[in-house]
Amino acid sequence: MRGSFQALRTIPFQTSIRPKSTKGRAKRPKMASQNVASADDFGEHVESTSVPGKQSTERFPRSSRPNAFTELMRHKPTAQEADKPTQKTVFAGRDGLAAYTIDPESFPPTRVVYHNERFVVINDLYPKASIHLLLLPRDPIKNVMRPQDAFDDAQFLEDCRQEEKKVRATVASELRRRFGKHSASDRPRIEAMESDDPPDELPPGRDWAQDVMSGIHANPSMSHLHIHVLSKDMVSEPMKKRNHYLSFTTDFLVGLEHFPLAKDDYRRRYTHFPEDMLCWRCGENFGNKMSKLKEHLAMEKEQWIRE
Amino acid sequence: MRGSFQALRTIPFQTSIRPKSTKGRAKRPKMASQNVASADDFGEHVESTSVPGKQSTERFPRSSRPNAFTELMRHKPTAQEADKPTQKTVFAGRDGLAAYTIDPESFPPTRVVYHNERFVVINDLYPKASIHLLLLPRDPIKNVMRPQDAFDDAQFLEDCRQEEKKVRATVASELRRRFGKHSASDRPRIEAMESDDPPDELPPGRDWAQDVMSGIHANPSMSHLHIHVLSKDMVSEPMKKRNHYLSFTTDFLVGLEHFPLAKDDYRRRYTHFPEDMLCWRCGENFGNKMSKLKEHLAMEKEQWIRE
DNA sequence: TATTCCGATAGTGAC
DNA sequence: GTCACTATCGGAATGAG
Hints:
The structure is a homodimer. Chain A is built from 10 helices and 6 strands. The first copy, chain A, is an alpha+beta fold. The first copy, chain A, has one domain: HIT-like (HIT family, subunit A), CATH 3.30.428. In chain A, strands 1-2-3-5-4-6 form a 6-stranded antiparallel sheet. In chain A, strand 2 (119-123) and strand 3 (132-137) form a beta hairpin. The two termini of chain A are 34 Å apart. The chains hardly touch. Chain A binds a DNA duplex through helix 4 and helix 9. Chains A, B: It comes from Cladosporium halotolerans. Chains A, B: Its main location: nucleus. Chains A, B: One of its GO terms (cellular component) is nucleus. Chains A, B: One of its GO terms (molecular function) is DNA 5'-adenosine monophosphate hydrolase activity.
């Protein structure tokens, strides 16, 4: 299982016109940069919001506006490949996560990032950040408990923590893959990797793990237990509503390190969001002005990437 | 002036394929009923919302859905004739009524119903009922006063009352013209008029004057004094918002008989609408459900006409 | 705090 | 309550035989 996970983590950017995988630290062919530029250039806002699965194909969200060149270069997804809501997921309402835990194989690799006996990891159907994965425990008992109750079980909690570590590493790795070449602190590593004579030991580069958040929502709407693992930029097309933003930027998001919660911890019964929306990066108060906040977050994302 | 007004009142249904006017009680030719059926049939929802002016041409609001026959029969308005907002009116904001009082001749006859030295009567640009006229005093001093203050002047008030009587009669006459043939109580009169041997004295028919409302808004938004004169059905496409409805169905609408107001009358400083919306005809409470109310009002209009 | 659809609510800008 | 535009806010349904 760990071997499979490792392989996954190192799967580079994929399109149908690239080999399906390259090995761990292998030097990328220079021509790969063309593909990278066509789809990963955040300046063009065309990066995919999903982490590639084992046989994934690249896709673009509807909000993408590829220019003429990228339009020519990119692989047009077929209806089957398209990573859209399906009858099984969207129309199942609050039980929409059940199908993943029961039959992960029935979903396209763009949706299910990986799965093992105890967990399924998927790309959130409505990502609220550039990268947004869900870690779904498959245990059908724990599955339908409120997370605050399920995590009273020490063993289950520990299992989730272990798996969450892997998912966090996946997100960090994906951040580097997508944005590393725009990051000042990642540049030494990138340049070493792409040099004609790469060193045996790469420079560490940027610690993207610091830009990963995770935890459960104190009052989830979906009935199956899901652990959010996402980048902290909060920029995505489906990020539309006040509660979307606040659910990841307040203590409504409860990290696994807080569990088990005390019996009287208020996060066992969180009710609503009285708070203003504050930019996660600069702290500016946007009150309830979602449109203004979204513009601002897009700007902050660029700055954040360039760090 | 009175002669001109009388002529106006008796101008029958008009299209470009009919003579511009017929005299007072003159017997209508039978073929006129074809025109009446084509444009006045409320069952087809094709009546114009505007009262014809002296040289008016018939028009249809965008919401009209004429059937194939009426489509063939009717005169298609040109862009110039079209009774749409103009730069002069709409873009003048709160002063949009000024232009009518200053230069009524510059407007098409579909807009200005009539004018004399002291008053201009127009079709409301956004009618809130099947028929909705505005009586505009031209006096440039009184003009820009709040109506509650302007009507403290007894002579001005009396002048407005006299003119309002005429406008109310115009609206009543227009109601008969449009809806009389669908009205049970108006039928004896209609049948007498259309008979081969009409009596010298027509039966009185329905008293449409009872279906006319008028008055000023206690807190008008438009800066020029305007007296609303309208049918009580409250059915129109521009009737969209809660305040539209409540402004005509509560004591926010103040009839001229109430003036001059006592110095401390609350209607001198009306603030807001705390009220639910009640159907003017059956009293049903629609709370703040505007869509539901609109559906209901359309049904009530049909019943009301058939009375 | 699943989304989507519809509709009600609120602020602004027009000149 | 001038409208029109944008956006925010608020409830209800969401599947299927």
